[in-house]
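As a next step, the fold was encoded as tokens, giving this record:
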Amino acid sequence: MEVPYAVQMVQKQREEQYERDNPANAIFEELRNQLKRFNAKLEDGETLVVQLNNSFGAPINVQTIGCANPSLIYFNGETADGNFAQVIQSVSQLNFALVAVKLQPGEEKRSIGFV
């Protein structure tokens, strides 16, 4: 059974309103899409590393990304010396790099998790 056009339009308006009210969710989905596209371009023997540039200076190799509506994105990972780190940022402050890194012999490709 086909959904009436008027119902489709109301659903679309609700979805658009939800995205306006919750930009973190929309940005989170765009981050996920960008990471997938970047990962698809990698050559054999390369892995994706997300390096978060943050205010305390030490880059973080991101392992998971999440969001809390309406406006927070959080990144979990580790510093260069292996310590756990979490950075919580407003959607207006995002600043990070996607880097293709050559794998060392025997090293497995990293994956970025989404929570």
Summary: The helical segments are 5-21, 23-40. The chain has a mean pLDDT of 84.
